[in-house]
Amino acid sequence: MAGSLCSEGGVFMKKVLIYGGIALVVIFALNVFLFLFYNRPPDRALFVEPVTHFETEEKVVALTFDDGPTKEWTEPLLDLLKVHDVNATFFMIGDNIVENEDIARRAVAEGHQAANHTVHHDRMIYKTPWYIKSDLRNMDGILKNIEESDRTFFRPPYGDKMVVLPWMLKQRDMKLVTWDIDPQEQYAKSYDPDLIVEQIMADVHPGGIIILHDGRRSDPAAFLHVVEEVVTKLKADGYRFVTVKEGLQL
């Protein structure tokens, strides 16, 4: 009898291990699938339709800047945009707004759009619903201090989305904004400004959304050179610049 029970127990444990192993493989495969097909691609997301560009044949583009506001990058950038009479969209980090609230207020006062890029620039991948809900709520409060208008535009740090984040954005009726013009040289250690300009000009099209970064990734002078060259060349080619909110109203 005892031998029979041990035998049955052994069979049960074997089944548990087999089915448990299968479950782990399925979960791993599902996560790989989601990561490859829905996490990083800017034009894909679960639950919401990412804003990658504007549906228009008019020669308009949106300049968007992530990771500010900072004194080293954003202040001179605002000076440059003012000289060229260009409005842009700034996906701001909450911590940076708190540290540089005067710069954030200046951006809004000069006609630029301030938008959500999370409080701490954390990767939202695998974050819990409670964490993401808290971050969205806290960031909404930070943006409310500098701008009373629409605060529903969100861009995820590193473009990471996975499952929970887009679901939470849908619950809050927020727009997930990505891009379709992303010069890869801006992520290289070399940060060749002329190559970045070349990559942008090769990909630009009516309704395009350009992603750049006003902080942490480059020498400020090289970054400003990129912006000035892009603005000058696109204006010469007949383009005008809009914020993301304006572009969606075309």
From TrEMBL:
<keyword id="KW-0812">Transmembrane</keyword>
<dbReference type="Pfam" id="PF01522">
    <property type="entry name" value="Polysacc_deac_1"/>
</dbReference>
<feature type="transmembrane region" description="Helical">
    <location>
        <begin position="16"/>
        <end position="38"/>
    </location>
</feature>
<keyword id="KW-1133">Transmembrane helix</keyword>
<feature type="domain" description="NodB homology">
    <location>
        <begin position="59"/>
        <end position="242"/>
    </location>
</feature>
<dbReference type="InterPro" id="IPR050248">
    <property type="entry name" value="Polysacc_deacetylase_ArnD"/>
</dbReference>
<dbReference type="GO" id="GO:0016810">
    <property type="term" value="F:hydrolase activity, acting on carbon-nitrogen (but not peptide) bonds"/>
</dbReference>
<dbReference type="GO" id="GO:0005975">
    <property type="term" value="P:carbohydrate metabolic process"/>
</dbReference>
<keyword id="KW-0472">Membrane</keyword>
<dbReference type="InterPro" id="IPR002509">
    <property type="entry name" value="NODB_dom"/>
</dbReference>
<protein>
    <recommendedName>
        <fullName>NodB homology domain-containing protein</fullName>
    </recommendedName>
</protein>
<dbReference type="InterPro" id="IPR011330">
    <property type="entry name" value="Glyco_hydro/deAcase_b/a-brl"/>
</dbReference>
